[in-house]
Structure formats: structure tokens, C-alpha cells
Design a protein that fits this description.
177 residues; alpha+beta; OB fold (Dihydrolipoamide Acetyltransferase, E2P); two-stranded antiparallel ribbon; 4 helices
Length: 177
């Protein structure tokens, strides 16, 4: 009898876990409520070797160190308010982790950094930084695949005064670079 009860409880836990992941309203794409659950598209897989700041990392890709700049977002620079917080938020999301790097349109910026969307632990990192108020949405044409999504998330974070928004650092009146 005890074995049947244990088996029944295990089945019920599995059913509940599966039901929770399929009925949470997530129809693909990223889960904008919790920061996780992103559908990770195909891309290059690398390991983060160093977090430079809130929107730049170094990765080991095919045995080479490659500098990556996040597409569609901007975080405070070293001499600006909230720099340390944004850098730490990025560090918490990616440091030492295996990440998937996804290209939009442009491969590299004018400084030779690879431009990518970043996924770590099935979290869309670019999106999470904007949603949580550590980054602003910025249009770097022609790389605009998630621009409208990022803008909506930024507006919500700004209205809530989340993290860096409380400092006014993103209030420059422009979202195009």
C-alpha cells in the first residue's frame, strides 16, 4: 500500500510540474514576468570568461576570447550612476555560465565587438536587464528584432522606478544611437 501511495504522489507531482510549465501563459518567446523561460534560438555556444560591464562580456568561443556587446540595450558607463548595479546584475545573470549567442543583422560594431543577443540558463539576458531596470532599450539600426519589445519593457520599468531608472540615468530623451 505504501508503494502505491508513493507512486501515486510521484505521478501527481510530475503532472503538476508539467501542468505548471505548459499552462503559465507562455506561448513561446520569453517569459517577461519572471525573467526565465525564454525559448532559446539557435546560436553559437560559448562560456563567459569575464563580465566587462552591464552590456559587455568576454566569452571563450572555439578556444578564442571574443568580446560581446549586447544588441538593443544600453547600460550606464563607468563614470555614470548605477554602473556598478547594472554590472552586478549582468554578472548575476551570466558570470561563468555557458551562453547562447544570437546575431541580429550586424555581426560587429565599429569597435570590433561582436553584437549578440545573449541567453543564459534559458533567460534572455538582454530582455531581463531592460525588464529589471538595469538597461534601456536602444535602437542600433539595422539591429531591431526585439526593439519594440524592449521599449515596452523599459517603459514599464521606468514607470515603476526600477533600479537604474530611479537615478534618471536613462532620461536623455533618445533611444536611437
Amino acid at each position: 500500500m505504501l508503494k502505491r501511495l508513493c507512486l501515486f504522489l510521484m505521478v501527481m507531482l510530475l503532472v503538476a510540474a508539467c501542468d505548471d510549465t505548459t499552462s503559465n501563459g507562455n506561448t513561446g518567446g520569453s517569459d517577461t514576468s519572471s525573467g526565465g523561460g525564454a525559448t532559446v534560438p539557435d546560436g553559437e555556444v560559448a562560456t563567459v570568461s569575464r563580465v566587462i560591464d552591464g552590456d559587455t562580456i568576454d566569452v571563450l568561443l572555439d578556444g578564442q576570447s571574443v568580446r560581446i556587446r549586447y544588441v538593443g540595450v544600453n547600460t550606464p558607463e563607468r563614470d555614470e550612476p548605477c554602473y556598478s548595479d547594472a554590472t552586478q546584475a549582468n554578472r548575476d545573470l551570466v558570470e561563468g555560465k555557458q551562453v547562447t549567442l544570437v546575431t541580429d543583422t550586424t555581426d560587429q560594431d565599429r569597435f570590433g565587438r561582436s553584437l549578440r543577443y545573449i541567453y543564459a540558463d534559458d533567460v534572455f539576458v538582454n530582455e531581463a536587464l531592460v525588464r529589471n531596470g538595469y538597461a534601456e532599450a536602444v535602437l542600433y539600426e539595422p539591429d531591431d528584432e526585439y526593439y519594440q519589445d524592449f521599449l515596452a519593457l523599459e517603459k514599464s520599468a521606468a514607470q515603476s522606478g526600477l533600479n537604474c531608472h530611479a537615478t534618471g540615468i536613462f532620461d536623455d530623451g533618445s533611444d536611437v544611437r
